[in-house]
Amino acid sequence: MTHTQKRIIINDIVMALSTLSALIGMGFLFWILSVLIINGIDALSMSIFLNEGAPPGNSDGGLKHALIGQLYLVGYASFFGIPLGVLAGTYLSEYSQKSKVAEIIRDISDIMMSAPSIVIGAFVYAVVVAPFGHFSGWAGTIALSIIMLPIILRTTDDMLQLVPSTLREAAFALGAPKYKVIVQVVYRGAKAGILTGILLGVARVAGETAPLLFTSFNDNFLNTDMSQPMASLTVTMYNYATSPYEDWQKLGWAAAFILSMFILTLNILGRVFLLKKRGKR
Amino acid sequence: MATIIEINKEKALEVKNFEFTYAGADTPSVKKLSMPVAKHNITALIGPSGCGKTTLLRSFNRMHDLYPNNKYSGEIIFKDRNILTSKEDLIKLRIQIGMIFQKPTAFPMSIFDNVAYGLKLQGIKNRTELSTRVEKALKDAAIWNEVKDRLKHDANGLSGGQQQRLCIARAVAVEPEVLLFDEPTSALDPISTAGIEELIVELRERVSIIIVTHNMQQAARVSDYTGFMYLGELVELGRTEEIFVTPKERLTEEYITGKFG
Ligand SMILES: Nc1ncnc2c1ncn2[C@@H]1O[C@H](COP(=O)(O)OP(=O)(O)OP(=O)(O)O)[C@@H](O)[C@H]1O
Ligand SMILES: [Mg+2]
Predict the structure, then answer these.
(1) Which residues of A touch B91 (CB under 8 A)?
(2) How many pairs of residues across A and B have Cβ atoms under 8 Å apart?
(3) What is the pLDDT along chain B (261 residues), one digit of tens a residue?
(4) Residues A35 and A88 reside in one and the same domain
(5) Dihedral sign from CA coordinates of B216, B195, B157, B151
(6) Where are the domains of chain B?
(7) Total domains in the fold of chain A
(8) Residues with CB under 6 A from ligand 1
């Protein structure tokens, strides 16, 4: 066997193995999605969006409380997490560059990103829930913001650093002060990337359950008071899906379906922004 | 040592004993350099790679100040003052001394907004004034006819040569007194290069120009004065024809005849 023949064979084997692995991965993905879609769509109905939770056996229970609670939690978390993350990322990339402090912040963010979210939930439980004596929407918001922060911070940092320094220099060379260079030129150049980071960050926290169990906990009825326990799709789904009641399980499927579609949309949007940006270059 | 021509005309800039050391470097990249820059003329800087041309050029608009810990000494006189002092207003300085980079640096915004950028920075908000000045700058940069129908389009959709002319339009829009060009055509094809060269020659009527180039024919074609730099020093500065025909320094002669570099 010649050298070339050997290489071709090895190439074929590696190709076959990687194709197979990809197919297995895709297989599971589509299995999960199809089970979710079949059960989810079956459980969907108008009353789900209009009614609050009801005791089991009561056929008109809905998810309104969880949907609105989820919006409050994720909305407030984004309200705090996005600006903080973008500003902190800007500080790292534009103001501190390669300083020691910047490197430490980057390392800490990386660690925080891979920290199990339940740990962050436990932390917020200790510093917010325990001192106040009860679960609350604010506590959930804080936990979600903390989870979101490093994701947005690091993507912003990375995306800003991808903007060529000559672009900054060109703006400075026209007599632009630093904040204008950043806001008017650098942000524009990194817009798609930063937006993707934001969407991925929001998508990530939208699917969190563990930290909410420790913080906002749950409520079977509609509550918009952030200082009180608050329902979320994830925790509601967990409660309903693990309950022995069939109608609750059905609501659990509906919650899972709605949540997955929401997160899927965010992720796809994020990809689209990135692709659009690449397409332009 | 060095042969530096006396310039009896008005000077746009005058470098005196300028020395520049990058942060962390132990030897200076520009050494005790002195040179005049004649007003409304084109001065070319040539020399082998790494001889300090870019370093010198970026000192005229204090670009080096964007990065920490660079050290410099000496004087650069512009409008009767030394611009190397700490009280120099860098924003005003950079409006008066513009710069064109090696690679086109179109901002990620529309063609119009690119050219209007410097004007807006100066507080010009009036739409009609902006439009007239943008149009004038684009005409000055010989790109108006190509872009007049798509001013609202993204500037990144232009070709490299067009982008470079857009950058020149952006720089001339704010009516600077000096324009610095750092190898402005090295990323362009021959036709775009010829266009830019023509443009630079025309601009001389309004601005004083310093151009760094690796292309000796380019220096010979466009410039009035040529300075030859070597290892951080200015070896010779003279009228361009003299530098290329009868250089006074042996090093200059060796460089322009292609013996090294
Ligand atoms: N940011 C920097 N930090 C440290 N040293 C630098 C830096 N930039 C340039 N130098 C050094 O300074 C010297 C002069 O560099 P400069 O870029 O001015 O040369 P140049 O004449 O423009 O060369 P080229 O023709 O290749 O553009 C070189 O030895 C280079 O290695
Ligand atoms: Mg250079």
Answers:
(1) 175-177
(2) 65
(3) 688 888 888 999 999 999 999 999 999 999 999 999 999 999 999 999 999 999 999 999 999 999 999 999 999 999 999 999 999 999 999 999 999 999 999 999 999 999 999 999 999 999 999 999 999 999 988 899 999 999 999 999 999 989 999 999 999 999 999 999 999 998 888 888 998 899 899 999 899 999 999 999 999 999 999 999 999 999 999 999 999 999 999 999 999 988 876
(4) no
(5) positive
(6) 3-106+175-256
(7) 2
(8) B 22, 25, 29, 47, 49-55, 214
Among the bound ligands, the one closest to the CA of B228: 1
Which distant-in-sequence residues (6+ apart) come within 8 Å of B226 by Cβ? Answer: B43, B44, B45, B46, B219, B220, B237, B238, B239, B240, B243, B244
CB B14 within 8 A of CB B182: no
B122/A175 Cβ within 8 A: yes
Q: Do both A153 and A36 map to the same domain?
A: no
Closest-approaching ligand to the CA atom of B51: 1
Cβ <8 Å between A169 and B105: yes
A195: which chain B residues are within 8 Å (Cβ-Cβ)? none
Contact A63, A54 (CB under 8 A): no
CATH of the domain at A99: 1.10.3720.10
The amino acid at A32: I
Nearest to A109 by CA among A126, A93, A125: A93
Helix/strand/coil percent split, chain A, to 5: 80, 0, 20
Shared-domain flag, residues A57 and A116: yes
Look up the CATH architecture of domain B3-106+175-256.
Answer: 3-Layer(aba) Sandwich (3.40)
Domain shared by A146 and A211, yes or no: yes
CA–centroid distance, B56 to ligand 1, in Å, is: 10
Note down the domain range covering A203.
50-280
The residue whose CA is least distant from atom 17 of ligand 1 is B54
Q: Which residues of A touch B170 (CB under 8 A)?
A: 174
Q: How far A175 CA lies from chain B's nearest CA (Å)?
A: 4
Q: Do B94 and A171 touch (CB under 8 A)?
A: no
**Contact residues for A26 (Cβ-Cβ < 8 A; gap 6+):** none
Check: CB of residue B63 under 8 Å from CB of residue B230: no
Q: What does the block give as tokens for A125?
A: 């439980």
The alpha carbon of A91 and the centre of ligand 1 are apart by a number of angstroms equal to 28
Q: Are residues A38 and A152 in the same domain?
A: no
The edge-to-edge listing of strands for the beta sheet with B97-100 is: B3-4, B233-239, B225-230, B42-46, B208-212, B178-182, B97-100
Q: Which ligand gives the minimal distance to the CA of B49?
A: 1
Helix, strand, coil percentages (3-state) for chain B, rounded to 5, are: 35, 25, 40
Contacting residues of B for A175, CB less than 8 Å apart: 91-95, 118, 121-122, 174
Rounded to a whole number, what is the distance in Å from the CA of A106 to chain B's nearest CA?
21
